[in-house]
Amino acid sequence: MPGIFAVQAYDATWIAALALSEKNMSGQKLLDTVSSISFSGITGEVQFVDKKSPASHRFHIINVIGKYYRELGFWSEGLGFSEAVNDKANYDTSLQNLGHIFWPGRPLHTPRGWAIPTSVNPLRVGVPTMAVFKKFVEVKYDHMQHNFTCIGYSIELFKETVKRLPYYLSYEFHPFNGSYDSLVEQVYLKKFDAVVGDVSVVSKRYQYAEFTHPYTETGLMMVVPVISYHEQWLFVKPFTLGMWALTIVIYIYYGFVLWLIERKHSPELQGSALNQAGILLCLSFTRLFSLDGDQLKNNLTRMITVAWLFVAIIVGQCYTASLTSMLTVRRLAPRVADYESLKNANAVVGYGRGAHVASYLVDVLGFKNENIRGFTSPEEYAHALRNKEIAAVFLEAPFSKLFLARYCKSFMVAATFGEGGFAFVLPRGSFMVTDFTKALLNVSESGTLQTIEKRMLGSEQCVDMESDHDEYGRLGLSSFWSLFILTGGTSTIALVIHVIITLRNHFRY
User: Fold this and answer.
1) How confident is the model at residue 45 (pLDDT cuts 50, 70, 90)?
2) How many CB atoms lie within 10 A of CB 158?
């Protein structure tokens, strides 16, 4: 197969032959003739611009292997790759038709681009060993093989992200036993080239490293125990204020009409003005259901009683149904509504040991150092909250999601604070920050992120089989004490009045 120089020499010979075919060609005239010639040669379109050859649109591809080289073929602009440059050449947009290519380092697959780390010096990735929620990152030591294995959601997401980079990246994980701030600082000290794990994006950490786009929800949650409750005046909630007012007015109006019509036929409906007023109120609220048809002397009162009974039954049944639904639905409320009440009560709160949350609680929220306590597992959180050793626990949004999925009946989020979420850590000024962020977005937009999240985090089961609170909201005195006070107070007042009147009559006679 002729090389590029042989092909160019062939076209040059044709140019000279065409120029010399003219008569009396010599000197400057021959040079002008050669410069004006244009034809299609083996190398493509041959012509000269200002007596110079224009930029080439065809390149010879050579595979350099150590001290040797191998000619593979050609690349032509607008055509692609080919083994030869002639009329019978087959062009392709891929290098595959040029045969096997030996890449530097002799990898078995085609590299995806330039990368700083190599198989000799891979990317050193730091992994935290103090993770509280092991589903995000966990470091296991194999005593048989004497090596470490890193697993978890963050690890799987990192591996998938590396696959989406536009270049080959070799890496290896290194466990780190220390705080998360110290772990990020190792990147600044060049002991690690990156950090992968449940590492939060915090502003003060930017002095040591840079972060990719967060791959989790953002926010810091205050998780507290829940309490069941019923409002003291829940029995008035089924009706609006206007409905109650109209119901009372209609009841009184019905009693007035009944009294007005029946007073001539019933001696008990007559008497003094005060007695008549009492009878009127009594008719309004009691006689409706206690008076049967035989006691009514007038057909008009029988008619309005039937109509009002129909309305009263429907209204009563609607009230009963609405109140029943309100009482049987379990109502939960946070035991503590805001962090200010915790501070004012000098309460103890919890956080994940080794995380930045401790400094946030002290520096931003204003808790005292002696009132914050670190924990190392979700079980410790739940135990401390249930035994009232702490009043609340502060967790990053991804952790709170896992925690509440496991303890679904006992705790809830009472407040949310701004926080940056989890991200990968890379050196300051590294070009890989942009590449990793773009690859992360690619993983998210393709749906792979949701698949990994469902596989790694979606299996958390609720362990609160028996809740400390009544699931069905059984009714107690707390729901109806106001009614009991009302009826008891009324009975007591009537009793006192009756005793006073009786004693006064006794001493008078």
Assistant:
1) low
2) 23
Alpha-carbon torsion angle 111, 113, 115, 120, nearest 10: 20
Q: Are 211 and 201 in contact (CB under 8 A)?
A: yes
Place of tokens 């701004």: 418
| Report field, pTM of the whole predicted structure over 0.90 | no
Q: Which residues are bridge partners to 142 per DSSP?
A: 147
Please tell me the distance from the alpha carbon of residue 481 to that of residue 232, in angstroms, as a whole number: 7
Which tokens belong to 337?
């509504």
Which H or E element spans position 39? strand 39-41
User: By the 8 A CB rule, do 117 and 168 touch?
Assistant: no
Helical segments of 263-338, H only: 273-282, 288-290, 299-328
Task: Tell me how far apart the alpha carbons of residues 271 and 40 are, in angstroms, rounded to a whole number.
Answer: 130
Q: How confident is residue 214, by pLDDT bands cut at 50, 70 and 90? A: very high
User: Which tokens go with 371?
Assistant: 């009132």
Token reading at 445:
């937009």
Q: Helix/strand/coil (H, E, C) string of 104-141?
A: CCCCCCCCCCCCCCCCCCCEEEEEECCCCCCCCCEEEE
Greatest mean pLDDT range, 110-124, 299-313, 436-450, 486-500 = 436-450
